[in-house]
Structures are given as C-alpha cells and as structure tokens.
Amino acid sequence: MIINARAYAKINWLLEVGSLREDGYHELSTLFQTIDLYDELTFSLAKDVSLKIIDPNFSANLPIDNKNLVIKAANLLASELDRKQGVSIELKKSIPLGGGLGGGSADAAITLLALNQLWKANLSQEKLLSLAAMLGSDVPFFILGGTAWGKGRGIDIAPQQDLDAPYLLLVNPRQEVATSRVYSEFDRLTNKGQMSTLATYFFTSTETLFAKIKNSLSPMAKAICPQIATIETKLTELGAKAVLMSGSGATVWAAFPSALLLEQAFETLNKCEWLVIKSRTISRNEYQQNILKVISEK
Ligand code: C5P
After folding, report:
1. In this predicted structure, what is the pLDDT of residue 57?
2. For a substitution probing ligand 1, which of 21, 23, 26 has the most ligand atoms within 8 Å of its CB?
3. Does the beta carbon of 57 lie inside 6 Å of ligand 1?
4. Which residue of 47, 102, 212, 277 is surrounded by the most CB atoms within 10 Å?
5. First vs last Cα of the chain: how many Å apart?
C-alpha cells in the first residue's frame, strides 16, 4: 500500500502563556488554526523504517534518524503495536523550519494517521491523541485540524466552530527562533509566568476574534529577532486588519480584508529579503478530507 499525505501548517490566532508547571512546561491557552501551506509525505510499506527528505533546500538542516519527529512517530506507533513494522517515508518540506508554524509537529501527527492505516493498526482517535502528546505539545492538534483550542500543556484539544480567513499572508524573517529559548526569556521576564488566569472565549467570527488577539511570547521573540516587530509594522501599514506572531515565532501572520490588498502586500514584501507566503484557513472538514490519499492498495 502507498499513501500520499499532506501535513498542513498551523497558525495561532491567540496564545496566552500562564505559569511554569512542575513538569517544566507552561500552562497555555491557545487557539490553533490549520492553514493552506503543507509538507508532502509518501508512505510505502517496506521492511524497515526509513526517511528520505527530497527537498535539497531543507535536507541539510533536518535529521533523518530518531531525532526527526517523523521517525519518532513511526517508532512510537510500532512499539505501541508491539510488532515489527516497516515503512519507507519520503518528505518534501515547504513549511519553514523553526518558524512557529508547527511543521515538524504536523509531519509527526500525519505520520501517526498514515501509519495507523498503512499498518492496519486501527487505533482510536483518543489513542492517537495520546501518542501524539508524547511527541510534542503541538502534535495532538494536528490529529483534528480546523480551529481548536489547546489548553493545559497545549495537548488538551477542544475543537471550536471553524473560523474563516480567506486572505492570509505569512511573513518569515528567514531567521529560526528556538522555542525553548523564547520560553526561558518568558520565565526570566515574568518571574516564571506567575500571572493571570487564562481566558477562554468562544468566537463565532474572525471580527470578534481579531479584537482579542494576543501572543504572550511576542516581546521575548522580538528581543531575540527584532525583525518580527518590523514585519508587523509593515503588514499593518499595508492594510492588514489583524497581525500577530505565530507560536513562539518568528513567522508573522496577517489577515487582509480583500484579495487585492493581499496581492499588493505580497508584491511589496516579496521584494524584501523575507519569505512571504499567501495562504488561507483550512476548515476541519477540508483538513480531514485532504490529509491522506491511498494511491495504491498493493
Ligand atoms: O512540547 P515541545 O517539545 O514542542 O516543546 C518545546 C519546548 O517549548 C519545551 O521544551 C519548553 O521549553 C517549551 N514549552 C513550554 N510549555 C508548553 C509547551 C512548550 O514551556 N506548554
């Protein structure tokens, strides 16, 4: 059997960080959203587990051994099944690395979903969510996709009504920002994050959402990478109605009110040294329909 898969990226519509927990993670309240930017993966039955990265731009920076979340996901599922399983995986990256768009986490979640089918494991969604949580704080969200809250460490996922933003622009300063470094800065500057109770909202439209957007990690990421602030200012000047850094940075997302303004902003910013990508939201339904395609049953 051969499966072709798409691992869609995410943005955080909102990210509030609370106190440091005993397990070393922080309490979070975040609203995740899948977007139209994806890595492509192919899974073919094989004797052993192996990974090939087929994009030369990325292969130099990505491990293909057990340090890669894709291999970790495959090994985790095999050990859960307690039987010898093999798969040959090809990965074509498009999601920028270390950019706050969840690329590695998406690849890992899609690997769990694809191998559940390829290896005829038949694990429940609940089981897949718990395996995903062992791989990283963002991974469980990608089992569901669409618009969803992440609470606790980020792994308690509560789907909410899909929010729709058709004219999104992503701007990445081409500088990786390490998540753990941003969180350390957060602890240093906020006295280990001992602060407010984290809010919960139920948004029915992006208009109400955009009035509430915030990312607690922005000041820390901007101290490490000042270009984030420059990008935000430019996007606002170009007519975006909402602008925010995604995750722990360094990518900034902007929602534009029209295709025309989106196109103009793309043309202007694409002349800079930054990586600029046009995108849109992907609903849970579209996500579930497009992530896996069996292309050969043999
Ligand atoms: O879970 P994950 O491996 O993706 O987390 C990467 C790093 O981000 C952690 O090592 C930690 O420094 C930070 N983190 C955190 N609290 C969270 C999620 C991530 O402190 N809820």
Report:
1. 72
2. 26
3. no
4. 102
5. 5
